[in-house]
Automatic annotation (TrEMBL):
Gene3D superfamilies associated with the record: Carboxypeptidase-like, regulatory domain
Organism of origin: Candidatus Gottesmanbacteria bacterium GW2011_GWB1_49_7
Coiled coil: none
Taxonomic lineage of the native organism: Bacteria, Candidatus Gottesmaniibacteriota
Protein name: Carboxypeptidase regulatory-like domain-containing protein
InterPro entries found in the cross-reference section: CarboxyPept-like_regulatory
Spans annotated as Disordered: 18-75
Bias (Low complexity): 41-62
Amino acid sequence: AAPQADDRVRDLQKQLADLMGQHQKMEDELRLLRQHTPAQPVTDTPSPASAPPATTKSVATPRPITPEPSDGGRATVQIITPDRAVKVGLPRLTTFPNVVTGIVKDSEQNLLPGVLITVKDKDGMPLRALKTNRLGQFAASTPLPNGTYLVEVEDPRLRFAFDRAQITLNGSIVPALEIFAKSQKEITRAKLEKELFGNKT
């Protein structure tokens, strides 16, 4: 039994040596390929059935969001770039153009479920009414026509206030919005500062 075990060990050692040699050869070939090939970004290739038309594949930033600051001061709406999306809690961005998506948080980065988002046209007509899920995320299920829209956010329990934002859709994939709420305490403090000290512009 001992000679058979020794033979088996030698066979396994030979196979391991062969595999290690093949592994080293492949690493050397890969290194050579990397030296001769320029670096290209890795992109996911959608399946043909779900792939959007070629004109909508690029992620385009709409014109900058123009918040209409409330009395609270600083703007509370930002565009989320695709590389930041996972970090802020949006693991999957839409692949369809003119679809509004985003996440709503309070000023301390806590997610806000049950918040209402209304997308209105330039005449103030509501076109989409959305509600954040348990993770503070919202997404329209259908695209909007190209144009300029007003995004209004409302907390039904009146704990928070929000700035309104204007977005322009142009037939491209719309980056998600990150919307931060202002607490009533922050708004009251800003109003008092304005009354006591006036505008600091």
